[in-house]
Amino acid sequence: MPISIRFLDLKVNDAYTNMAVDEAITKARGEGKAPDTLRFYMWKPSAVTLGYFQSVEDEVNLEALQRFGFNLNRRISGGGAVLNSERGEITYSIVLKEDDPRVSTDPIESYHYLCLGIIEALAVLGIKADFKPINDIVVAGKKISGNAQIRRYGAVLHHGTLLVDFDAREMFGVLKISKEKLSDKMIQQAEDRVTTIRRLLGRQIGFPEVRDALEKGYRKALDVKLAKAELTPYEEGLIKHFRERYASKDWIYRR
Amino acid sequence: MKRFEYKVPGGKLLRAKLEVEAGKIRVIQLTGDFFMQPETDLEELEARLIGSPADFATIESAISEFFSAKKTVITGACPADFAFVINQAIRI
């Protein structure tokens, strides 16, 4: 009989709330005040999310960001900048105790294990995907999912994004992929390095279908039952507190 | 500001931005898409390097001692990569 983990179903929030929710779950889990958790979420408005060690000036075209009306956001986890597009992706987080026997202390093994749900979800949709160390999932060599982990509060937080669709002008307009000026040639080259579910399937698959595949994928990969639930009042309190930090200029521009 | 960026083969991107004055590091910032835990170690390392002589051997041993004393877990780069990128930035 598979063990059960809490499942927080797909919800849409802004960048700062989304980051605050992940950190609140992590803290509550570490303190034993929340169970193991899988969460699906989306973003509104779209946001550029930097890794903890990245600098705004290196990664973000602020003029384009403002023109598109996107938020600027920073994770507590390391890794690279992503565009969390409100129309183009589903993000997910998994939170377990840091000493959970399922999670290896080896970072690469730990990424691999917690990426298996996405690989299974893509298989449900008929897409063969592979884990690519350190923290990516690729289909025929093209990136479809990026992931980041952090160990804090006695828990491990694994969060990542799965590309359903993407708008090259938006993504390469706001992210400084190259110092070269944005040209069609550049977009073409950068586009060749990523792929999306819609492109691979050749149809306008909707978000509910992707969400269902993710649910099945995680259930299978982690061999768990998903118990639909909500955040606890304790977590809700933490979210209010953490959100202020995530939305602050001090945090966003710390590097 | 001197700057140098380096993609670790099979790893992540590191950037060093720094200023040297009278042979010593006056300002330094290290950035990139690597992973490091505890993450506060990076800021501590930067603080420790300020005032350090801007020569490779000193920086390399300071960084390697720092990370091994702190038991920092770095994914996507190693201490020598940080020393390398700083040294390259100094020489620019």
Compose a concise summary of this entry.
By secondary structure, chain A is α/β, with parallel strands linked by helices. Chain A is 39% helix and 27% strand.
Which geometry of chain A do the CA atoms define? globular
Name the strands of the widest sheet of chain B in spatial order.
Answer: 1-2-3
Beta-strand residue fraction of chain A: 25-35%
Question: Which spans of chain B of ≥5 residues are poorly predicted at pLDDT below 50?
Answer: none
The number of distinct structural domains of chain A comes to 1
Largest sheet of chain A: 8 strands, mixed
Give Rg of chain B in angstroms: 12 Å
Count of DSSP-assigned helices of chain B: 3
Strand order of the largest sheet of chain A: 7-8-9-10-6-2-1-11
What structural category arises from helix and sheet content of chain A?
A: alpha/beta
Helix share of residues of chain A?
Answer: 25-40%
Quote the distance from N terminus to C terminus of chain B.
Answer: 10 Å
The overall pLDDT average of chain B reads 96
Broad CATH class of chain B: Alpha Beta
- Biggest protein-protein contact in the assembly: A-B, 22 and 19 residues
Order of helices and strands of chain B: EEEEHHEH
Describe the 3D structure.
The complex is a heterodimer of chains A (255) and B (92). Chain A is α/β, with parallel strands linked by helices. Chain A has a single domain, classed as BirA Bifunctional Protein, domain 2. Chain A has ten helices and eleven strands. Chain A starts with a strand and ends with a helix. The relative contact order of chain A is 0.21. Chain B has one domain: CO dehydrogenase flavoprotein, C-terminal domain (Enolase-like, domain 1), CATH 3.30.390.50. Chain B has three helices and five strands, in the order E-E-E-E-H-H-E-H. In chain B, a hairpin with a 5-residue loop joins strand 1 and strand 2. The mean pLDDT of chain B is 96.
